[in-house]
Amino acid sequence: MNIRVTIIVLVLAVVAGVVAIVKLRAPSSNSTTLPGSGARLLDPDAFDPDAVTRITLDRRTDAGDERSVFEKTGEQWWQTEPLRFEMVTWSIRMLATSAADLTIQQTIPRRDLKGDLSAEKLGLEPAMAVITYDTAEGQHRLELGRIAVGGNAYLRRDADGDVYVVEDRLHRRVFEASPREWRVRNLMSGVTTDAARLTIERGQAGQTVSLARISGKWRLTLPIETAADEAAVSRFISDLGSMQVESFVEDQPDDYTLYGLLAPWATITVETDKVDADGRTTTTRDAVLLGHAFDVQDAGRYAKRADQPAVVKVRAADVNALTPDPASLVSRTVVALPRQEIRALVVDGQEGRFRLERQPEDWVITLEDGSTAPALTSAVTGLLDQLTLPCQSVEIASKGAAVEGAYLGKVAVEGFSSNTVGEVTCYRRQRGDAVEIVFADGSGALRSRPLVNVPDLVADSFASTTPTGGGGGGEPILVEPVK
């Protein structure tokens, strides 16, 4: 055999060897349609993230196997297993969009899953996590293996299928965060300014504070019944609606006694009424229980919603905002009626009774004998200020309890419908070097302010001393009542 023939034989042998190797390495007939590098793992025409209505996530953790189920209601996602909890919609949607965006970097045929590339070593037997996406058209299942180097990770679609090397974004979302972290941290997000009733029960202190919206206005109903401070109640509702979970403690505890939640330190309940098109009223009830303090250094408390099993921790600042002194919720104005709606003031002072009545141009004073005179505008304005401007402080006393201080008199307030809308008793009280006036409306609420520019509750303080006719001498000009 000459050299030329030898070379040809060798070349043919090499070609035959290469062909044999290629055949051995080529995908089997069952995998000839495997997508190539750069292709989407999930066909965009078959998998739309916005069409996903249910996601089931099974994870292997150090504490054991863990299942979480998320379901979509309207546009909102909820965890439904192992408990019901509102979820951050963006966080759950990212589980679907991360899957939709996966592209294949490499395909490892199932026949090559051996040695260092065995399914067990790739974290796929058993899978480290399994995600199942449900849509109206069907189901999509992904088994997640371990994260590889270079920002990649292993994944397969079927238990005995081929393995794909994909970007690790979905894996990291599943492995590096607990589903707890995807929950809405706003513990009472359902509470809004539409609330109709509020109750704060301090179980260990034996104190209950209740408020109700009546004819559009908030009123305190316990521990006393009086007008509430609209701004203070609004702040309370806002604080309640924005109360944040600092951390999730235990989802389904066996014993709530450990957290002080069987006999709560405080329970806050909000009721909201909604009227449907047929005029029927539906009441929703949201309640949160506050238990033991976290520890001696941390005044935050364990808490849970009444309708959920999960125990969480809330911050000390939230606890303080949601357990206010009842007096801070009481209206600081002596009379709820705006001053422009006050038609008359009936004063019963220590020197007699008189009436101040608004006229088109000014105020008129009427004495007990029926005689009248122009009222001193500055004095009337001063009394209206005392009754309608916010007081400096509010106290809650036992209903009917004696009020400290010297009695000054009573003032009854009439609206334009001639009905008495309020009556207060006034006292002069000494507090250290300061002197203040205290108003008691009979409810148990005591409102006070410094005794400055407060006219004495006597007729001489309110009758004008400016002559308007034949009189003189600076004395009040009184005229006979009209017959």
Q: From the helix content, strand content and strand pairing, which structural class follows?
A: alpha+beta
Mean pLDDT: 85
Any idea how many domains? 3
Instruction: Characterize the largest beta sheet: strand count, sense, and whether it forms a barrel.
Output: 9 strands, antiparallel
Query: What proportion strand?
Result: 35-45%
Spans of at least 5 consecutive residues whose pLDDT stays below 50 are 5-34, 466-474, 477-483
Give the count of helical stretches: 6
General form = elongated
The share of residues in helices is: 10-25%
Q: For the terminal residues, how far apart are their CA atoms?
A: 153 Å
Number of strand elements? 27
Strand order of the largest sheet: 4-3-2-1-6-7-8-9-5
Radius of gyration: 39 Å
Would you give an account of this structure?
The chain has helices at 3-25, 89-100, 169-175, 230-241, 316-322, 377-388; strands at residues 54-61, 64-73, 76-81, 85-86, 104-108, 129-134, 139-147, 152-156, 163-167, 197-202, 207-214, 217-222, 226-227, 245-250, 266-275, 281-293, 301-305, 311-314, 342-349, 352-358, 363-367, 372-374, 393-396, 406-415, 420-431, 434-440, 445-450. It is of the alpha+beta class and 483 residues long. The chain folds into three domains: 29-182, no CATH class; 197-329, Immunoglobulin-like (Sandwich); 339-461, no CATH class. β10 (197-202) and β11 form a beta hairpin. The longest helix has 23 residues, at 3-25. The termini are far apart.
